[in-house]
């Protein structure tokens, strides 16, 4: 039965890479967004006047400066749910090797990737296009390979074997981002007034999904998107981008372009941190634009608690004046939701909010 289902998927699967390579000057109708959802290309409203936070993580290891960095992180989380980090401890060689390996994967002939195609969100390794190409009402101009990545030894044998360097090179990057995630969660916990090891056990036993995204050059970027507005389900997303394309929504509901900073990584708060913080911090709504001239690559390392572990507002952040504002949820609850619902119509976290928020 599984082979039959895959055959059906393969019959109507067309990757964004194939569409770009076809040379058609127009995007297919299924990629055209309604006018109200189309991106405003060029400088975004507010981009020229807004300062997006960039934090030097090397100071986290200095006892005299750590509190200053924690305060910077607090301000960034409250103001944006987002910040960029430099001096984060992941070497440029590890980053470059991962990017080169991913580029080689996406450049493979289509038939060499098709055995990984699935529209099942719970597959541990999944190649696809758009978000869910079999159910999306509007398609999005991206191809992706997603795979579970922690603990690495449990999953790496399922990863692509072609190109031959993929497992080793992307595996090193996945391990490095897992270490960085632990450091960031400690700092964010401290910034909320919690013990730095508040989520230590859950993070060590937690889930890491590496989503490697390829956004090929798009002939009509003004009427399409690479990803729709959404927030991420997990604790944090650590994002590596090869060029500009990510936009976040600021507190005034304007879309702001995230600049490309060589060597920097992007940190985005997810729904689990919003719930844990009882709404003190908010997960960031973001989207991805595409461009006409070149291919953009990104690595989104999505970190969360274990699949079945429920997260709820930290008891230290709940009191008579600030009652629990969210119901609890797990990674599995999120997967069940997106398998049945269109995330472009209603965010998952909206289903968790209580009336008192």
Automatic annotation (TrEMBL):
**What are its GO cellular component terms?**
cytoplasm; nucleus
Q: Please give one Gene Ontology molecular function term for this protein.
A: oxidoreductase activity
Subcellular location as annotated: Cytoplasm; Nucleus
Keyword presence, Translocase? no
The entry's keywords: Cytoplasm, Iron, Metal-binding, Nucleus, Oxidoreductase
Q: Which SUPFAM superfamilies match?
A: Clavaminate synthase-like
Q: Which domain of life is it from?
A: Eukaryota
PROSITE patterns linked: FE2OG_OXY
Q: Which Pfam families match?
A: 2OG-FeII_Oxy, DIOX_N
Q: Indicate the segments forming the Fe2OG dioxygenase domain, all copies.
A: 206-305
Any idea what job this protein has? Involved in the regulation of shoot development and salicylic acid (SA) homeostasis.
Q: Which protein family is it in? A: Belongs to the iron/ascorbate-dependent oxidoreductase family.
Protein name listed in UniProt: Fe2OG dioxygenase domain-containing protein
């Amino acid at each position: 039965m599984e082979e039959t289902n895959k055959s059906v998927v393969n019959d109507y699967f067309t990757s964004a890479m194939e569409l770009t390579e076809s040379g058609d000057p127009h995007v297919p109708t299924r990629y055209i967004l309604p006018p109200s959802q189309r991106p405003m290309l060029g400088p975004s409203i507010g981009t020229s006047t807004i300062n997006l936070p960039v934090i030097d993580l090397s100071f986290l290891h200095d006892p005299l400066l750590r509190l200053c960095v924690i305060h910077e992180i607090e301000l960034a989380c409250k103001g944006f749910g987002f910040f960029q980090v430099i001096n984060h401890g992941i070497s440029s060689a590890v980053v470059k090797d991962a990017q080169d390996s991913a580029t080689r994967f996406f450049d493979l002939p289509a038939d060499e990737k098709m055995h990984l195609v699935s529209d099942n969100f719970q597959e541990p390794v999944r190649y696809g296009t758009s978000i869910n190409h079999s159910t999306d009402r509007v398609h999005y101009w991206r191809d992706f390979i997603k795979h579970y990545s922690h603990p690495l030894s449990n999953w790496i044998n399922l990863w692509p074997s072609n190109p031959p360097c993929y497992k080793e090179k992307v595996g090193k990057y996945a391990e490095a981002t897992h270490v960085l995630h632990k450091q960031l969660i400690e700092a964010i916990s401290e910034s909320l007034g919690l013990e730095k090891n508040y989520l230590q056990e859950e993070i060590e036993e937690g889930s890491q999904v590496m989503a490697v995204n390829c956004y090929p050059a798009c002939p009509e970027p003004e009427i399409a998107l690479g990803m729709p507005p959404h927030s991420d389900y997990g604790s944090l997303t650590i994002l590596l981008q090869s060029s500009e394309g990510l936009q976040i929504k600021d507190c005034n509901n304007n879309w702001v372009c995230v600049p490309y900073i060589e060597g920097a990584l992007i940190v985005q708060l997810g729904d689990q941190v919003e719930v844990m913080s009882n709404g003190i911090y908010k997960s960031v709504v973001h989207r991805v634009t595409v461009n006409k001239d070149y291919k953009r690559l990104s690595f989104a390392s999505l970190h969360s608690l274990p699949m079945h572990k429920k997260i709820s507002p930290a008891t230290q952040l709940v009191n008579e004046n600030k009652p629990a504002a969210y119901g609890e949820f797990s990674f599995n609850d999120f997967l069940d939701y997106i398998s049945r619902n269109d995330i472009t119509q209603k965010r998952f976290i909206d289903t968790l909010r209580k009336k008192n928020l």
